[in-house]
Amino acid sequence: MNIRAQVSMVFHLDKCLGCHTCSVACKNLWTDRSGVEYQWWNNVETKPGTGYPSSWENQDEYKGGWEKVGNTVRLRATGKLRGYTNIFFQPHLPTIDDYYEPWTYKYEDLFDSPPQDTQPTARPISLITGEHIDTIEAGPNWDDDLSGTKFYARKDPGILKLSPDEQKAIFEFQRIAFFYLPRICNHCLNPACVASCPSGALYKRGEDGIVLINQDVCRGWRFCVSACPFKKSYYNWKTGKSEKCILCYPRIETGQPQACFHSCVGRIRYMGGVLYDADKIEATAASEEKDLVNNQKAMILDPKDPAIIKQAQKDGVHMSFIESAQKSPVFKFVKDWEIALPLHAEFRTVPQLYYVLPLLPVLAVKKGNTFEVDNTEFFGAIDKNRLPLKYFASLFSAGNEELIVKAFKRMLAVRYYKRQQEVGDLDKSKMLDAMSQAGISEKVAEDIFKMISIPTYNERFVVPPLHREYQTAIDGDIDTYMGQPYAYKAATGFGPRKGVKRGL
Fold first, then answer.
1. Residues 6+ apart with CB under 8 A from 440
2. Which of 45, 78, 149, 440 has a CA between 20 and 30 Å from the CA of residue 369?
3. What is the mean pLDDT of the chain?
4. Which of 69-73, 87-91, 307-311 has the lowest mean pLDDT?
5. Residue 308, domain extent
């Protein structure tokens, strides 16, 4: 066992308003410079939808992440031979059209316009070429709220996995629904971006697991852009360097939550430290798809276990981080309550951003010429969700529907419990039956409710103290990752190089 520290996150999708306040906060703080106009380290997508960049989930097109080969994994986009043969040309690299061409407007056409009979207009101008753009066709949230459209929702890679009958049912007028999916860099435990970089510019900090890019070392090869299946590494067209979400580490180091977390209007975001067994990274990444999520959760260790505490200190994790991990909301959501799941575990990067699933509105049933709410189940049955379990499973459990059902049952049980407690118009036996099926007690239901509905600032954000003086990873022997040989170095030939200075 090799215990390491990681800053992890949970997003509660049932509470997301789609207001994009998080995106604007991040944009104003980190990506308001020339060359990064199209970079949205934080973006909010409408699901079903194609997302940003367009169809980023389709790895048949983009070749991001890892693929299982025997008992190990290898990069889809690159490798020992493919990396060097494609070093000057990457066929699966997203183009600017997959994002959007950033633009401004020629405002002087408004200010300097002479008197005329028609209203003057400001023409859009590309921020890359400086030339006029005839038609603006895309933007960072271009498909916002467009849930039934043939150009966006119907081209969602998750929707395309459903049968024609299932797709037809989803897009019936009375069933159309959507939810918001905020995304940032997942700061994965098995990051494909780190493994793919020929320059060794990307690295994972030993004291907190944050994935960063050394701008002094980056040579703009853009393998990180190809390899990241979440497309959260971007190329700065002006500096010739790659950039990505840095998880606001300067804020974390001063005890503050990330800017997008702090500014979130819906209070959907939680962060805290977790301890995990680094010896299991390769085995977890190479798991069978149905076991990926369960094995990922098994990597996360109980920070209150005396044996874990002793081993963690032996492995160089400071006691103050361990104490912080004991209060972490992430551990509660992922391990204690098992209602938060990772996004696209089948990409095999072992992401450290988890999502609490959205409980969509109940199905409306047609009675005569009108539609009425189906009250056969007070809050609606799980199998009557407007979006099928198979769709959620394709997003959050690598196809394992049992995990989706378990999470939904627990969240519905909390609703039954609070309805009975606060209003009292439900049959108590029905409430107890729902809780029994979900496998939770009244105390657990109350704890979940408090953390979801009325958490304090310090309960949502348990910012772990970071100790660079206790850093056990990559500044020394950087052919190792957190004290362990790089699981992917043998498969790729890339990864960190000796003599590369770590840090920004």
1. 337, 410, 413, 414, 448
2. 149
3. 86
4. 87-91
5. 266-460
